[in-house]
Design brief:
alpha/beta, Arc Repressor Mutant, subunit A, Rossmann fold, 5-stranded antiparallel sheet, 5-stranded parallel sheet, 43 helices, 16 strands, 62% helix
């Protein structure tokens, strides 16, 4: 049997503690290189072949890059021993053969288990009893290496070995040259996308050269900077993220992260480990679900660990897992307690000696085979000198029930903690408040004492197996060896003490990272919220909410806001409190619009409360943002009168401020509402004035409604007003400018917006193929990026074009499908405009009854909402369909009804100054009057409106009018 301890130079290898130490202090070395070091030391002076290393470390039949795996392990050994491969003191390479350990080794079988002695324990025991589960993980890793990614979910109770199993496969992955990405969820640190933030942060920290980082991030750098703001400080040339509607922004961000992960994995097969998913926020689970959908085509294996016991309170996780498992996108690996024989194997690994079956049975009964509890109970009994007799062998039985052994893991850990020095316990309290992972930098800034004294306390905790250094991070960083240990530390603190420590940690973060606080808003919100400083708690909760909203993590944003509003009650009444509450309601309004709908009543209540509070505060820019948000709600709710009144107030406020961006926003808002109300002349004036304030080099404030570029917005709506006012050529030219600007900006939402509006203008000009071509481009963009609003409109126009090209049935089906898509947006506007193509399609197919139903629905929408932009055309189409709906014996009645509708259409169009609608309605009426032998009246009225036009004579409406005039003798 190999010696328990072997010493060489200033080092010693302790088999019972599974540890390498230098001058008594532990040296961090991962499992595989440490296993190899034990093999080399045991065979000191002899050649250990590469084949022997492969078999003893990784086992038979394991496929991996042998050379790289062994070379990596040896390189890590040399680094830990400060050895030089050119003039080695310890490990000599025998070319093409293997390695020889050449240092003089002193061995001893001394067992450090006698009364009064302390044992240094490792948190990394050899894994026991998980062969079947490991085999499943091996298969997943092999699948990923061959390009067939998988999600594997490791579940079980706390301490059952989920992380240990993940660590084991991570070691195998490293040997197979599989890249490793690790992120953790936290019970307390409710930062959106936390594990993915951690993954990205570690990746960024591992890359020293900006050029290499820029290459690694690729085209996704701009979106990933939303996840990790410090990327913009490292790479200031990154373009700003796309300004999209909330739902589209979230989808685009998810796609960008998945594209990034796919590219990383394509360069090197990758294992991603997401720990503690039972604490994951909704945004993390949503992104994981999105990634899972694409895994099958990636060389990426994802492992998620979670606690079964917490499933009943984690509905988001339950749904995510159910969807993944039901869709056969994931494999579940459920861990149970070890049986008695495997508990015995674990005890042998911990002690270096074989325990009696009775001892293994007793410990199994106390722990239910939970590996973490087995290990903690073992160490507790060992330190209490209850395990061994005077000869150093196991007692034949332990009688644990008579020893007053702690009945829970937390109590076992608490007793171990009590044996540490008071200074170390105090240090651990601060570390536990920081979190499962803690940096030495923040620990020192939060604690009393100099660096050396704090490091001594950390080393004491490390020797006790309670914390360990995180080697992969270039900064000095540590972690608790298990979350249950951290929880035991927290449980031992009074409420007042915890509150004080949270305050000290928050203050330390502020002082340490004063130049980059944006990266720590979530952490500061967490710590200040648990401190007595309500003022800073509200401030940072507000910052964290805004940051979460920018990431489209709206559920988390809402949680931050609710907490901030609760803490705000602790503030004294006054201007400062009002300002903070306004900012919170403003953020809340945006998040509610994103999660519930643009016209959500809940969003309206948030904006209304903020609007009321603005009376107490002199802050014109903030008032403008609140009013703009409320205006957006009214517009989408189709409450145009309220939107118009608010638009007038917005413009008055913008004129007082005399800031171009606010003037642009006010004119755009008011002009848009007036357009929907059918007040085309006024709408044109405001939209053209808005365009005058547009500067493409300046970003638009995110508080404004539109997600498309405002310049394209104003140009598109100006084109629409020009068509109504009787300038079809100018309308086509203006929409062409909008499309050209959109292409120059290369902004997906703006491109879709411009293409759909081009289709609308071309539809109005009755340019069937051109309209179809425009919306085909829009549909492609909308389908790729997930823009349902414009996807619905584009699909309707495509159906209209098909119907006019002789495919009435297919066209009608397309229009109905587009209407279904549009309904999913919950929008209350545009219904008259969107029902008109359906009525036309039915008219073309001879189905006048269904056509009239569509028209009646459009008229109902006009009357309900006051949306009068297309009112004249609704009446005209009702007249056209009336002519088709009656049998021949009712022709006089149908003609009378049609004439009434045509005259209504002309009256509305004249009131609105809509020359184009007036021309179309007058042409329909003149054609009817000619059939009734009223040719003179028909000719006079048609000539009158035709002569009002100075352009557009190539458009179909004007051509038909001219042909009819010629027939009437005009």
């Amino acid at each position: 049997m190999p010696a328990n301890i072997c010493r060489f130079a200033e080092y010693e290898l302790d088999r019972s503690a599974y540890q390498l130490r230098r001058k008594g202090r532990p040296v961090q070395l991962e499992r595989i290189p440490l296993d190899l070091l034990f093999i080399l030391a045991d065979s000191h002076g002899q050649l250990v072949t590469r084949e022997e290393i492969l078999e003893r470390v990784w086992g038979k039949g394991v496929f991996l890059d042998t050379d790289n795996a062994i070379n990596t392990a040896v390189r890590k050994i040399r680094h830990a021993l400060d050895d030089d491969s050119d003039s080695p003191r310890f490990v000599v390479t025998v070319p093409t053969k293997g390695y020889r350990f050449v240092a003089e080794v002193h061995e001893t079988n001394h067992q450090p288990f006698h009364r009064g002695q302390k044992t240094v324990h490792s948190t990394k025991t050899s894994i026991v009893g998980r062969e079947r589960e490991l085999a499943e993980l091996h298969r997943g890793l092999d699948d990923a290496a061959s390009g067939r990614g998988r999600l594997l979910l490791i579940s079980g109770e706390p301490g059952i070995g989920k992380t240990r199993l993940a660590d084991e496969i991570a070691g195998v992955a490293e040997a197979k040259r599989v890249a490793l990405l690790v992120g953790h969820c936290s019970e307390e640190e409710a930062v959106p996308f936390l594990p993915f933030v951690e993954i990205l942060e570690r990746l960024v920290e591992s890359i020293r050269e900006p050029a290499e980082l820029r290459r690694k991030l690729g085209e996704e750098g701009s979106e990933l900077a939303r996840l990790l703001p410090k990327l913009r400080r490292i790479l200031p040339e990154l373009p700003p993220p796309l300004n999209l509607a909330p739902a589209q922004s979230r989808r685009h961000f998810f796609n960008s992260f998945c594209d990034f992960a796919a590219r990383i994995a394509s360069e090197q097969p990758t294992l991603m480990i997401l720990e503690d998913l039972h604490w994951a926020d909704d945004s993390t689970l949503s992104l994981l679900g999105h990634l899972t959908q694409r895994l099958s085509d990636m060389p990426l294996m994802v492992i998620g660990t979670y606690r079964d016991a917490d499933m009943n309170v984690t509905r988001g996780l339950a749904k995510t897992l159910e969807d993944s498992l039901r869709g056969r996108l994931a494999t579940r690996v459920k861990l149970k307690g070890l049986p008695p024989d495997e508990v015995a194997a674990m005890l042998e690994g911990l002690s270096g000696k074989s325990p009696p079956a009775s001892v293994a049975s007793e410990i199994h009964a106390e722990t239910d085979g939970n590996p973490f509890f087995v290990e903690e109970l073992f160490h507790h009994l060992e330190e209490e000198n209850r395990l061994y007799d005077s000869s150093g062998q196991f007692h034949s039985e332990l009688k644990i029930g008579e020893l007053e052994a702690p009945p829970s893991v937390r109590l076992v850990v608490a007793r171990r903690l009590a044996r540490l020095s008071s200074l170390t316990q105090k240090m651990l309290a601060t570390a536990a408040v920081i979190g499962r992972f803690f940096s030495f930098e923040i620990l020192q800034a939060s604690s009393e004492g100099d660096a050396d004294s704090i490091l001594e306390r950390v080393e004491e905790a490390e020797k006790a197996g309670l914390v360990f250094p995180v080697a992969e991070n270039p900064k000095v960083r540590f972690a608790f060896s298990h979350e249950l240990i951290r929880q035991a530390v927290i449980a031992g603190l009074s409420a007042a003490r915890r509150q004080r420590l949270h305050l000290e940690v928050a203050d330390a973060i502020e002082r340490t990272f004063s130049d980059s606080l944006q990266d720590y808003w979530g952490e500061l919100a967490f710590h200040y919220n648990r401190s007595g400083n309500a003022r800073k708690a509200v401030v940072y909760l507000g910052y964290a909410a805004a940051q979460a909203a920018q990431l489209a993590a709206h559920t988390q944003a809402a949680a931050y806001i609710d907490t901030a509003l609760e803490r705000l009650r602790d503030w004294p009444a006054g201007v400062d409190r009002a300002k903070q509450e306004i900012a919170l309601h403003l953020t809340s309004g945006r998040s509610l619009q994103a999660t519930i709908g643009q016209g959500a009543p809940e969003a309206e209540r948030a904006y209304t409360r903020a609007y009321d509070l603005c009376r107490e505060v002199e802050d014109a820019p903030q008032l403008f943002r609140v009013m703009s948000g409320l205006w957006g709600v009214y517009q989408v709710q189709a409450r145009f009168q309220a939107a118009s009144e608010l638009g007038v107030k917005l413009l008055a406020l913008a004129k007082r401020m005399q800031h171009p961006l606010f003037l642009l926003g006010a004119h755009e808002a008011l002009g848009t509402t007036l357009l929907w109300l059918g007040e085309f002349t006024s709408a044109r004036e405001h939209l053209e004035q808005g365009s005058a304030f547009y500067d493409p080099q300046k970003r638009r404030p995110e508080s404004f409604r539109a997600m498309q570029d405002p310049g394209v917005d104003c140009l598109s709506f100006t084109a629409l007003t020009l068509w109504h006012l009787g300038y079809p050529d100018q309308a086509l030219k203006k929409i062409g400018e909008a499309v050209a600007l959109a292409r120059k900006l290369a902004h997906p939402y703006t491109l879709a917006y411009a293409a759909v509006h081009a289709g609308v203008i071309q539809q109005l000009c009755r340019q069937v193929q051109a309209a179809r071509d425009s919306v085909e481009r829009a549909i492609e963009i909308c389908s790729k990026h997930g823009f349902p609003f414009f996807l619905g409109i584009g699909t309707i126009i495509r159906g209209w074009a098909l119907a006019h090209q002789g495919q009435e049935a297919e066209g009608t089906a397309q229009i109905l499908h587009g209407l279904d898509i549009y309904r999913t947006t919950g929008s209350g506007i545009n219904w008259p405009q969107l029902l008109l193509p359906l009525a036309e399609a039915y008219e073309l197919s001879g189905n006048a009854v269904e056509g009239l139903r569509a028209v009646e629905a459009a008229l109902a929408a006009v009357e309900k909402t006051g949306e009068r932009r297309d009112e004249a055309e609704v009446y005209r189409l009702k007249g056209v369909l009336a002519l088709r709906s009656k049998a021949s014996q009712y022709r006089i009645q149908s003609q009378s009804e049609a004439e009434e509708q045509f005259r209504k259409a002309i009256e509305v169009a004249r009131r609105q100054s809509s020359k184009s609608w007036e021309l179309r309605a007058t042409t329909s009426l003149a054609r009817l009057l000619a059939k009734q032998h009223e040719r003179d009246e028909a000719r006079v009225m048609l000539a009158e409106i035709y002569d009002c036009f100075s352009e557009g004579f190539d458009t179909l409406d004007l051509k038909e009018a001219k042909t009819l005039l010629d027939e009437l003798g005009g």
